[in-house]
Write a structure and sequence with these properties.
The chain is mainly α and 233 residues long. The protein is built from 7 helices and no strands.
Length: 233
């Protein structure tokens, strides 16, 4: 069995299809049995929490990552935990950020993955599992009509991201970390490579985020009433 990961190869395609199929299967079950919605949300949230705690425990005990680098301050990390909370609470602002930050971040991570460890290792397994769980949860909430982005919420997600980026920048400065790649680009090839040198690539990334968030808003331009805690019939 090959240990190399091929972009859009069979394994990659299977991961993408599995994530979409899981979200669709949960949605179908909830639409058929609306009373199962709270249980499904809680179970999915607990699965995400267990996954997140397992990953950070692995980083601490197996990889030796310590404070402050171990803090879950990357955009995908924050979006992951906000998604788990959104499953439990259906709070609109939490879901907005989970949707924009999560789909833009984890969606890109699944479509164009950067697998740092050998393919068949826990680290690579966790990379795909964590990002896929976020995508599954967000799509499930939308497809089952338990939540949806509010009109013009892309703007809220964008300025919230900038405020959070400023906070991450302060932590990077104090702790000599590189959360959100604010101090330097990643060593591997990335979209940031075409956005110029520091600090210009940060402004370029903000423009890219604005475009992505605006595009993600387009399917939800028309307002729709959502019954919190229940699936649509």
């Amino acid at each position: 069995m090959s240990s190399e990961f091929h972009l859009f190869g069979r394994l990659h395609a299977a991961i993408l299809v599995a994530a979409l199929a899981a979200a669709a299967g949960l949605t179908f079950a909830t639409r058929r049995y609306p009373g199962s919605a709270p249980i499904t949300r809680i179970a999915l949230a607990l699965l995400m929490i267990a996954d997140g705690l397992t990953w950070h425990s692995y980083r601490y005990f197996a990889q030796g990552v310590r404070f402050p680098e171990i803090l879950p301050l990357e955009m995908c990390d924050i979006a992951f935990w906000m998604t788990a909370l959104a499953l439990l609470t259906l709070e609109e602002h939490l879901f907005d950020l989970a949707y924009y930050w999560g789909i833009a971040g984890s969606g890109m991570a699944l479509l164009t993955p950067y697998v740092r460890a050998p393919l068949y290792t826990f680290q690579s397994f966790q990379y795909f599992t964590g990002h896929a769980l976020l995508i599954i949860a967000v799509l499930y909430l939308i497809w089952s009509r338990q939540a949806r982005p509010r009109p013009r919420s892309w703007w809220f997600a964008l300025w919230s991201l900038n405020l959070y980026g400023a906070l991450a920048g302060v932590i990077d400065w104090l702790g000599a970390t590189n959360f959100m790649y604010l101090r330097e680009k990643p060593a591997s090839a990335s979209l940031l490579d075409v956005l110029g040198r520091w600090p210009w690539y940060i402004a370029g990334a903000d423009v890219v985020a604005a475009i992505l968030f605006w595009l993600l808003q387009q399917p939800f331009r028309a307002p729709e009433s959502i019954r919190s805690g229940t699936a649509a019939d």
